[in-house]
Amino acid sequence: MGVLIWTTALYHATWKKDIWKCLFTEIALLEDVTNLNTNKNVETNIFKSATFQLILTILIIGGLFAYEPSRMGHNNQKVFLYTTTYIYFFLHFLLSVIIGNVAVILKLKFQDINNYFLAFEYENSTALIKGTKKVKDLYASMVDIVETFNKLFGPQLFLMGLHCSSQILQWSLTLVYNMFSDDDNDDYDRLIIGVIYIVLMLIWLGVTMFCCDLAVVESEEIVAICYRLQMAHPVFSEPYQNIKNLLYLVRTSKIRFTAMDYYEISRSTMFDLIGTTATYFVVLIQFYDSKK
């Protein structure tokens, strides 16, 4: 599963560069929310370059492969285990950092849009109408950006979640087996590495989901702002109707971060994963206990 995640990341970094460019270009064009349609030069950030991330990943993995055998000895059977574990550590960390940072950027964009819209609370009707139309365009642009985000990172998020679930089940089974086994030759070093690996994987995946959830929560704040502005205007007035149209757009085009549309990326998903894991762990303990 870890190899599949790595292969998918390589595929998107090598053959899907247009999606990377599209995502960061769309984000850069929203740098100034008051000038949505202003054309400006987009500066290139090397740290957001897929090529840079690919080269950095290969160098670190190559260094790990060279370091582990020299430290542990060529005859040690655990060299491959430790080395591949480090590779998965780094891969999950790299993907989580990239996805989490992009999600935080989107969260800040939604925050800028909300602040921009809220500034029209004490403006006249004409300014509010223009501002509402501008916010509507901004929100529609953000919907497109999130769709690009899901297209680019959805496969990785899906595989990371699937890999995390499979690893939890695998190491839970190993842990329960060692708890009820009378064999003195149990590989506790391998078990400890597996537990640490799962904990770190849950942390990185949880941080990613938390960042995406922050962006969703911030995008929903615009609904409260719309209701707040509507209260200051008659029902059949033009400002009220423009805000109503904006509300319709927000309700019909909700911001959703998904893993290939299989599940949403949110804090509740993380809690569901932990709860399901705890349930399986208890079932495994009861199963082995009943066999003794």
Task: Describe, in plain words, how this protein is organized in 3D.
With 292 residues, the protein is mostly helical. The chain has one domain. The protein is 78% helix and 0% strand. It is built from eight helices and no strands. It is elongated, with a radius of gyration of 24 Å. It starts with a helix and ends with a helix. The relative contact order is 0.12. Gustatory receptor which mediates acceptance or avoidance behavior, depending on its substrates. Belongs to the insect chemoreceptor superfamily. Gustatory receptor (GR) family.
Describe how the helices and strands are arranged.
Layout: H1 2-15, H2 17-29, H3 50-72, H4 79-118, H5 125-180, H6 188-230, H7 238-252, H8 267-291
Helix pairs in contact: 1-2, 1-5, 2-5, 3-4, 4-5, 4-6, 5-6, 5-7, 5-8, 6-7
Please count the beta strands (DSSP E, at least 2 residues each).
Answer: 0
Instruction: Give the overall shape.
Output: elongated
- Structural class comes to mainly alpha
Order of helices and strands: HHHHHHHH
* Count of DSSP-assigned helices: 8
Task: Name the poorly predicted regions.
Answer: 36-43
Mean pLDDT: 75
Largest sheet: none
Distance between the termini: 33 Å
Domains (count): 1
**What fraction strand?**
under 5%
Approximately how much helix is present in the residues? over 70%
